[in-house]
Design a protein that fits this description.
Layout: H1 2-17, H2 24-32, H3 54-58, H4 96-116, H5 118-131, E1 137-143, E2 149-155, H6 172-181, H7 192-199, H8 207-213, E3 217-219, H9 226-229, H10 236-240, E4 245-247, H11 249-252, H12 264-275, H13 278-294
Parallel strand pairs: 3-4
Antiparallel strand pairs: 1-2
Helix pairs in contact: 1-2, 4-8, 5-7
Length: about 300
């Protein structure tokens, strides 16, 4: 019975988060039979990050990766997108011709990268295997255009159990930051070879296969997890209408300082979505190579 109950609650959770604007915690709590006056609106619960009532609501349906309530709670989702302002000095969003030209560029550039850098990637794979045990490649589940689930490929830059057991390598403060932002300065899980790959952005090279398959673009918003999509608040559907990219406006501006919590990351990504054009793409393209030279 307990196994059946877990499956029912898991299904309720998945159905809840599939609806834009829905509150998974409330929906799952309802599914588990909590009284109405005990339901929690997780968005307004300041203590939800460490111990929230949806834990008791869903019993053992906890993340297999983390001990805290991460997978079963939505992020804040409090971001309110500003209305489009035509008076802002920014590129005008491209039309159908732009999208066709962008796809042609994606295919041509990605095919060239795959051919030219095949040998360096092979060398990097060998170095990864020598440095630490584990496969040289790994894939991550992300949300693509239109809310479609996609899997992106990368060269492994961390220890093999980095995502399954982050608590083995991080302090409590680091865990809290990572779970909120999905990035961490001086991440202790990064290997020696991994630091070199990240500094030169070589770990991103396998993603050009994702570009060729049509899941990614060379330039676009950063592909994020399902939970992270709710950080966009009322701009979630607008951002998901754009194909994610290997590099983008947020990644080449103040990536390390623009966080979900401050709302600056949402603003950067939304700016690109609303002004994506050949001119803006060219700026991102140039800035990407400058950032690679600086090792950022």
């Amino acid at each position: 019975m307990r196994i059946v109950a877990r499956k029912v609650l898991a299904l309720a959770f998945r159905n809840a988060i599939a609806s834009p604007g829905a509150n998974p915690g409330r929906a799952v709590a309802c599914a588990s039979g909590l009284d109405e006056d005990r339901l929690i609106d997780i968005r307004n619960d300041e203590g939800a990050g460490s111990s929230c009532e949806c834990n008791s609501a869903i019993g053992c349906y906890m993340s297999t990766k983390n001990s805290n309530c991460v997978e079963c709670c939505t992020p804040n989702g409090a971001y309110k997108a500003p209305a489009p302002d035509s008076s802002v000095a920014a590129p005008k969003k491209g039309g159908v011709g732009y999208l066709v030209a962008k796809r042609v560029f994606d295919i041509a550039f990605s095919a060239g990268v795959c051919l030219v850098l095949a040998v360096p990637v092979a060398v990097a794979c060998a170095a990864i295997c020598v440095d630490t045990p584990g496969k040289p490649f790994f894939r991550q589940e992300r949300i693509g255009q239109g809310g479609k689930k996609i899997y992106i490929f990368k060269l492994r830059t961390m220890v093999s159990d980095a995502h399954d057991h982050p608590e083995r390598y991080m302090s409590s403060a680091q865990l809290e930051t990572w779970r909120r932002e999905q990035k961490l300065d001086d991440d202790p899980r990064i290997t020696r070879v991994g630091r070199i790959l990240r500094r030169t952005s070589l770990d991103e090279l396998p993603q050009f296969l994702n570009v060729l398959s049509g899941d990614l673009s060379v330039i676009g918003p950063r592909p994020v997890t399902l939970q992270e999509t709710y950080e966009y608040g009322d701009a979630r559907e607008e951002v998901l209408s754009c194909k994610p990219g290997i590099t983008g406006w947020w990644a080449v501006t103040d990536r390390n300082n623009s966080t979900w919590q401050s709302g600056q990351r949402q603003a950067r990504e939304l700016f690109y979505v609303r002004h994506q054009s050949l001119g803006l793409d060219a700026r991102v393209f140039v800035k990407t190579f400058k950032a690679m030279r600086r090792g950022k």
